[in-house]
Every structure is written in structure tokens, then in C-alpha cells.
Specification:
- This protein is mainly beta.
- Helices cover about 10% and strands about 40% of the residues.
- It has a single domain, classed as Galactose-binding domain-like (Jelly Rolls, Sandwich).
- It starts with 5 loop residues before the first helix and ends with a strand.
Length: about 240
């Protein structure tokens, strides 16, 4: 999957065996470095999306500014979804990416995207799937996740649309917001990640080991701006 660089997958190795809190942007200082998150660059020749801590409506949030660019903000974590299956976050976009199209590799851009990567053993994959992953890694020069869900703010597909990522069916895409009707507004999302994993992959969810976010326009060559509030895993 083009959007998940090998450096992001390397974060899996450092995931703690004990659940840890996701560093809250609201507890950081505007203009200061982002603490507890790592910038992941998928391609050396692609400009970075710029992430900065800013004040918005009285809180510190993470602002993402993409201009023909792509980089990811990632946090390594260990979440037992049997205990805390709900993921809650806030986000806001200036506008959706006009030229995005989740059915094409050339349109794999989003004003807002939340990644969840799972500790799914490669040994459980079929021989054919393992072979496809190896071919994909050889083609794109990076590791491909064995199981991931992307929560998207899309430009055209209806909310609730599931779609395989155009690079690998081991990353499933779910549209949770779409279009421009809510642009400029803070929206709070709550997803049952354990239930979403069952829908996406047809089995019980393993632990979450990486949470990440991105605003990207490297394929469409557009500009996009988004703001992200705190992310939390919660019990039902």
C-alpha cells in the first residue's frame, strides 16, 4: 500500500505490550514540537505535509497542510480491543480533495484520514495473499500492512462505503464523512474498531499497534488543509 511506508511498519516492532495513552494534542503547546508522534515519509521525493500545533476554539489541535504532498503522523501503541474497542476523534477540513477517487491509485488522496494498524500475524494469511504482499513490496519498495483500516473524509463516495485500498486488499477503507457540507466544522467521530475489523476482515480483531493520521495530495497535486483533535480508545 503506497501510503504506508516501511518506516511506519517499523513502528510495530517498538509497540509496548502494555496499553498506553495516545498523546493528546490538547495537552501540548501551540507552536511547540508534537510530542509522542512520529512523522513518517512514504516517498523521499514527495514533499511533506506540514503538521503544526495551533490554537482553535480555545484548544490546541494539530493542523495539517498538504500541497502536492504526503507524510504521516504516527503513534505506536498497544490497544486491547476487547477492553477498549471504541476509537473517538475530532477533525475538521477546509474542503475535500476535488480530484480524489478512492477507486483509482491516481486518486488516493484525502483531506482527512485516520489509520489503524493491527497486530495480525502474517502466518495466518493464505499463501496467495502472502505472495501478493511480497510482489507488492517488491514493486513499491516498502512493507505492506497485513491488516489495516483507514477512516476517510472522502469527496464523493457515500458515508458507510467500504472499499479495498487500490494497492492492497489488506488495507480496507471506510468513508465516515463525505463531501463539503460539513467543511469548516468540527466533527466528532466514534467508531467501534473491533466491529469494523469484523466487517472488514471477517474475524475477531487483534490488538491495535499503530494509530496514524494524514492529509495528503501527492497523487492529485492539489492543496488541502485539515485540523485534528485528540484521539482516544474507550470502553463501551
Amino acid at each position: 500500500m503506497k501510503k504506508i511506508a516501511s518506516s511506519l511498519l517499523c513502528l510495530l516492532a517498538s509497540a509496548s505490550a502494555q496499553a498506553v495513552d495516545i498523546p493528546a494534542f490538547s495537552q501540548m503547546q501551540a507552536g511547540a514540537p508534537v510530542i509522542g508522534w512520529s512523522v513518517v515519509k512514504p516517498a523521499a521525493k514527495v514533499p511533506d505535509t506540514i503538521y503544526t500545533l495551533v490554537r482553535d476554539e480555545g484548544q490546541t489541535v494539530l493542523k495539517a497542510e498538504a500541497d502536492h504532498s504526503m507524510s504521516i503522523m504516527a503513534h505506536t501503541v498497544r490497544i486491547d480491543l476487547k477492553k477498549t474497542p471504541l476509537l473517538r476523534w475530532r477533525w475538521k477540513i477546509a474542503a475535500p480533495v476535488k480530484g480524489a477517487d478512492m477507486t483509482k491509485k491516481s486518486g488516493d488522496d484525502y483531506a482527512g484520514r485516520i489509520y489503524v494498524l493491527f497486530d495480525y500475524p502474517v502466518e495466518k494469511l493464505s499463501f496467495a495473499t502472502r505472495a501478493k504482499l511480497k510482489i507488492g513490496e517488491a514493486l513499491y519498495g516498502m512493507k505492506i500492512p497485513t491488516a489495516a483500516i483507514n477512516y476517510l473524509w472522502d469527496n464523493r463516495q457515500p458515508v458507510g462505503t467500504w472499499q479495498d485500498n487500490t494497492y492492497t486488499d489488506r488495507a480496507r477503507m471506510l468513508v465516515v464523512e463525505s463531501g463539503s457540507d460539513k467543511a469548516g466544522q468540527w466533527i466528532t467521530e466514534t467508531r467501534d474498531v473491533a466491529a469494523d475489523f469484523r466487517t472488514a476482515f471477517g474475524e475477531e480483531a487483534p490488538d491495535v499497534v499503530v494509530v496514524a493520521l494524514a492529509t495528503d495530495t501527492d497523487n492529485t497535486g492539489e492543496q488541502a488543509t485539515a485540523w485534528y483533535g485528540d484521539l482516544q480508545f474507550l470502553a463501551r
